[in-house]
Amino acid sequence: MEIQTNPTITLLCPSCWGTLEQNHCPNCGESFSQTLDILDLRWPRPPSLTTAEETLVTNLVTQFETKTYRELVTLRFQDLDAPPEFLTLYHDYQANLQTRGRSMMDMFQTRLSEHYKIPDRQIALDIGCGVGTSTAVLANQFAQVIGIDPSLPDLILAKKYCQEQHIENTLFVQAFAQQIPLQDNLVSYVVALNVIEHLFDVENAFAEFHRVLKADGCFCGDSRNRYDLFFPEPHAQLHWVGLFPRRFQPWYVRTFKERPYVSAHLLSWLELRRFAKHTFEQTTITYPLVSAYGQPVQTDKWIHLLEKTPIFRHLALIIFPSHLLLAKVGNPLSNTH
Ligand SMILES: [Zn+2]
């Protein structure tokens, strides 16, 4: 498929949905802050940064041109107030991120293509793009990629990463998934990598993905399973968190790990299925190919075998560590492609 050049992207005011001119909305008069040309379009506007966060952003901005991406990553996480085991884990994760980003994006598209076809290669949207490694991969496949994330420090790193890789067709915007400052029917492909379990308003976020997607656009995202029986919950590093009723989960994590449990909200297969079917005309929930997560390639063969086994196919999804949601906008019968 041929990559087309420079589709125009107009950012919208998240308050009134008027068209922004630079960082200002002529329609409602709101102005939005801008850091290294990354606009803060989070809405409703969250409380302002703490002093520590402000210092971090200032450090990243002032050293943006002189430091490398890797040095900025160190700067970003050196003051992180987290247990040492978590930091080690995070640094390992960061170190493998480039390879991981590529293998995950490849896996997403391999799985998606078994069911649905991305209509064209014009604009992709990377939801919760973080430090931009998946955005950079998509930038090689689409004419333009928009990365949105609520975290400014992550977006600054993403921008640096793309700059170092000489990638110029990316646009980073600080925004929430449930209020995407883009026009309707704009995007051909929406990606959510390691994101669905962090959406606290899944219904509205999914509705936004559907709104910005073109009439035959596609969505792909992975989702950690609440009822995974095999691996520790990745954010708490503790087994079986999801087996507890939601209101007891923070108590369980605090008791055994002495840390708060606030930023993750894992969905079960049924919950994910309900949200997906409520939003998209065509949906498939399937197994991710676990080689993309660094598991042995042989394991993928077992997954393919499992998929072909009628009863177990669904039963195993209930307890499998992770799900892959594939979706397409539009009724299959109205599809002329
Ligand atoms: Zn406005």
What would your notes on this structure say?
The chain is α/β, with parallel strands linked by helices and 337 residues long. It is 36% helix and 15% strand. The protein has a single domain (34-228, 266-329), classed as 3-Layer(aba) Sandwich (Rossmann fold). It is built from 11 helices and 9 strands. Strands 1-2-5-4-3-6-7-9-8 form a 9-stranded mixed beta sheet, with helices on both faces. Helix 1 packs parallel to helix 6. It starts with 33 loop residues before the first strand and ends in a 9-residue tail after the last strand. 36% of the residues are buried. Bound molecules: zinc ion. The site of zinc ion (ZN) has 8 residues, from loops.
Strand and helix map with partners:
Blueprint: E1 34-35, E2 38-40, H1 51-62, H2 69-77, H3 84-95, H4 97-113, E3 123-127, H5 133-139, E4 144-149, H6 152-164, E5 170-174, E6 187-192, H7 202-212, E7 213-224, H8 249-257, H9 269-279, E8 282-286, H10 297-307, H11 310-319, E9 322-328
Parallel strand pairs: 2-5, 3-4, 3-6, 4-5, 6-7
Antiparallel strand pairs: 1-2, 7-9, 8-9
Helix pairs in contact: 1-6, 2-6, 4-5, 7-9
The structure holds zinc ion.
